[in-house]
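Design job #97: recover the sequence.
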């Protein structure tokens, strides 16, 4: 196995460039693919095989993933891997670079931001036939998690792990302030009141909560708690009235000093975990994926804990933290599928991978993995996921094409309201128009 550590991404590349590069490859020209059928696969898979694998993550994820792939090679000696990994920033840019050079990885990690678009543009391999003939076993996945890898009723990717949207809070700080901890099921308005109490108790040194008005995860769960959805098919699942209510909730929070300054919130909106305000000490609580707790804890001297986001936990669903997907033009589709099956259903591989990406996709494997977890933060990730499992609601369809743009537009709209550059009504109207246009492209 030859590992390629993180390198700086090439400037000037974006998701559009990636999609153009991928769909422009000769393998995809004219709708035909070389070596992707099962007859062709049999002919090319008789000798040694080298598969390229690409993912984002830190050194711990890289070490675990490479170790799991080495185990696969030990059990399948003719298969070797050429791995590449890096941080999330610039990941899709680098995938575009590889596509431009005709070197798309056989197996790669994606998230739900691009899943639907990649499937509809036939970039990823349709896995449905492999599921049907049991070569890819998704029977051990929670039903909602399996569905969340389907686009237009086709399985196009398999969850690498399961996660949930979590409220990460500073337990030590709350103890020092002698205030109660936030709890799962706390109504949103009660949460805002709690955050204001934290700010007052700290003498204004620490704000109670991160302002999530531009966080699509929080908005989505808030909408689901009210019986709505972020999307309905290829359209927004909500209107201006709902979004205005959301923005006004956080305007109330700002007037009560429950949230920090707009500048601090914008810094945290970049998504860099090191800039999470609960880590930097600017807030008592922030919003993250549950599987990120261990990394956040490594950056904090105080004890961090997690609960579900405010509102009913039934708004959550069995959500893929990320997926394993195969390139539609791979010369070894059957082998790539077998690797995906190994990474998601094999107990030994599951123990190696641990919970760094989240709870193992297979419910059976996850029980074995949980027994071997010793890190305190990771134990909390397991406990959070286990407690939430019985409370989850039905999984929606993965976000439609244009989701990445909608996320960016929501952040921009929220920032314009926080900074006072525009009122909530104007920002809402602008967002609805721009988001609908993005989804219609």
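Job complete. Output follows.
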């Amino acid at each position: 196995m030859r590992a390629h550590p993180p390198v700086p991404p090439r400037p000037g590349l974006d998701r559009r460039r990636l999609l153009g590069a991928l769909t422009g490859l000769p393998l995809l020209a004219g709708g035909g693919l070389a070596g992707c059928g099962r007859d062709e696969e049999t002919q090319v898979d008789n000798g040694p095989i080298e598969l390229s694998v690409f993912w984002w993550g830190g050194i711990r994820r890289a070490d675990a993933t490479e170790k799991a792939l080495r185990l696969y090679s030990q059990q399948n000696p003719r298969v070797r891997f050429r791995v590449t990994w890096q941080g999330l920033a610039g990941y899709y840019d680098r995938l575009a670079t590889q596509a431009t050079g005709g070197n798309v990885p056989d197996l790669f990690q994606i998230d739900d931001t691009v899943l639907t678009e990649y499937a509809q543009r036939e970039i990823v391999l349709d896995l449905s036939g492999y599921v049907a003939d049991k070569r890819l076993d998704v029977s051990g996945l929670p039903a909602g998690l399996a569905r969340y890898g389907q686009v237009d009723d086709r399985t196009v990717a398999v969850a690498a792990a399961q996660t949930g949207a979590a409220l990460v809070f500073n337990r030590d700080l709350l103890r020092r302030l002698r205030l109660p901890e936030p709890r799962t099921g706390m109504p949103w308005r009660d949460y805002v009141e709690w955050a204001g109490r934290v700010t007052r108790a700290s003498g204004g040194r620490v704000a109670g909560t991160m302002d999530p008005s531009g966080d699509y995860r929080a908005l989505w769960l808030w909408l689901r708690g009210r019986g709505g959805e972020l999307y309905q098919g290829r359209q927004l699942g909500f209107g201006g009235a709902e979004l205005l209510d959301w923005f006004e909730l956080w305007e109330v929070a700002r007037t009560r000093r429950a949230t920090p300054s707009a500048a601090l919130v914008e810094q945290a909106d970049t998504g860099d975990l090191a800039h999470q305000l609960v880590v930097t000490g600017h807030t008592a609580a922030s919003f993250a994926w549950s599987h990120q707790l261990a990394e956040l804890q490594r950056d904090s001297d105080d004890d961090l804990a997690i609960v579900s986001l405010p509102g009913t936990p039934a708004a959550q669903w069995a959500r893929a933290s990320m997926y394993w997907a195969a390139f539609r033009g791979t010369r070894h589709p059957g082998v790539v599928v077998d690797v995906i099956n190994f990474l998601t259903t094999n107990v030994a591989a599951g123990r190696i991978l641990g919970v760094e990406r989240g709870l193992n996709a297979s419910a059976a494997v996850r029980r074995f993995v949980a027994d071997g977890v010793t890190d305190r933060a990771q134990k909390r990730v397991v406990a959070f996921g286990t407690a939430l499992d019985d409370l989850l609601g039905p999984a929606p369809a993965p976000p439609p094409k244009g989701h990445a743009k909608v996320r960016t537009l929501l952040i921009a709209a929220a920032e314009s309201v926080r900074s006072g550059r525009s009122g909530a009504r104007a920002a809402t109207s602008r967002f609805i128009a721009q988001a609908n246009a993005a989804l219609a492209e």
